[in-house]
Each structure stands twice: as structure tokens, then as C-alpha cells.
Design brief:
214 residues, mainly beta, Pnp Oxidase, Chain A, Thrombin, subunit H, 2 domains, six-stranded antiparallel β-barrel, six-stranded antiparallel beta barrel, 16 strands
Length: 214
């Protein structure tokens, strides 16, 4: 049933709202016969409210499950207790927590062809505006057409990760001193490098929470 779930595993909790959805990082504290206890997510230094009976969706690596809140605990540590799923779903793509972060990046732009990436067109040193396990928002000197293939090297604090990506959305620069913004999706990234990005985001969010900035 939940053999692929484990204690202390990092997860993301999706809160479904009438005007959209919100995703919060958490981790598994306990797994019992009928329930799973998750660390209650925080926002702005406060526990995010989930009502008993509220449906949630939980993402854990490359698996996901739908559940509902069955209880909440506040002492000694705040917990969100959800029903243990009977079925775990394999997911190819999922929503990742996105973090505003300025990280050095090298972008290699390739010609788009029917057979895949063609010749390298240019290489630009720039930086991210935000990042997630599934993509990034990049500052760029000029706009690029959607679906333009890219190769990225992003510098995390302790190491670099490389991946292939493509442009998904473009925001033109509004002034000479404001660059264009490219929303890019990672199309080929190793699970290990993806985990490094997610780990960086979790650690940065923890630092921000400790400072009361998130």
C-alpha cells in the first residue's frame, strides 16, 4: 500500500482552493495503519490552516496520493494527520514548490528543428529569478520564441547542475534596464540533480521561516 513512503521523507502538500491551489513543503513524521502524520506546513511563521475533512493531495518524489485531513495536533510539534492511501500513483510530472532565488546560470540556446535541438545559437551568462524542481524563471537579454530548446547550467550554493530545457512563456522587458523573463521547463534532468534543487529550496525555506520571512 504505502511501501514507497518512508519516515522523514520530504513531501509537498497541495491545498486546493476555490481560486486555485497552494503547495507547501513538509515531511513524513509517522506512518500508522490508517493514517500518515505530516509536519504541519508553515507560511509567514504561522501554521497553515487545514480543516478536518479537507481534501489534500500529497506528492512524494515520483509518487502522489489523494487523501483528506482526519486530525490536527499542535503539541509538542504541529502535525497534520491524513488518511493513509490505498493507492499510490506514479506521476511523470508534478507541481514543485517554487522559490524566489537569484542563482548564477549559463544558458545555451539551440536552433529548434523538427528532429530536436539543432545548432547552438548563443551562450549567455545570466541568473534565475525563481527556481523549482521542474523549471525556472530566467532573466535574459532578449525574448526567445516559445519551445526554443536550451541547455542550462545553474550554480547552487555548493555545486552546479546541468539539464536540458525549453522556453514555455516569455515576458518582454519593459525598459532598457529590465531584461526579458523566460519561464523555462526542464525537459531532461537527472533525478539526482532534481533532488539537489528540491533540497536547496527546502533548506532555504527553512532559513526564511526561522527569520520570520516566510
Amino acid at each position: 500500500m504505502s511501501s514507497e513512503l518512508r519516515l522523514n521523507q520530504k513531501v509537498e502538500i497541495e491545498k486546493i482552493k476555490d481560486d486555485g491551489r497552494e503547495i507547501y513543503p513538509s515531511y513524513i513524521v509517522a506512518i500508522d495503519d490508517n493514517t500518515i502524520s505530516l509536519a504541519a506546513p508553515l507560511s509567514g511563521g504561522y501554521v497553515v490552516f487545514f480543516a478536518v475533512g479537507e481534501p489534500v493531495r500529497v506528492y512524494a518524489g515520483r509518487i502522489a496520493f489523494s487523501s483528506e485531513v482526519v486530525a490536527r495536533k499542535f503539541f509538542p510539534d504541529p502535525l497534520l494527520i491524513v488518511s493513509r492511501p490505498e493507492v499510490l500513483e506514479k506521476v511523470q510530472r508534478r507541481s514543485f514548490v517554487r522559490l524566489e532565488a537569484s542563482l548564477p546560470a549559463v544558458v545555451r540556446v539551440y536552433e529548434a528543428t523538427a528532429g530536436g535541438p539543432g545548432q547552438a545559437m548563443e551562450e549567455v551568462k545570466t541568473y534565475t529569478l525563481d527556481v523549482s524542481g521542474g523549471g525556472a524563471l530566467l532573466a535574459f537579454p532578449h525574448a526567445l520564441p516559445p519551445e526554443t530548446p536550451l541547455e542550462l547550467t545553474i550554480s547552487l550554493p555548493d555545486e552546479k547542475i546541468s539539464c536540458q530545457a525549453k522556453v514555455k512563456r516569455v515576458e518582454e522587458g519593459t525598459a532598457s534596464d529590465r531584461p526579458a523573463r523566460l519561464g523555462v521547463e526542464f525537459t531532461a534532468i537527472s533525478p539526482r540533480d532534481q533532488d539537489k534543487i528540491v533540497k536547496f529550496i527546502f533548506e532555504r525555506q527553512r532559513e526564511l521561516r526561522q527569520k520570520g520571512l516566510l
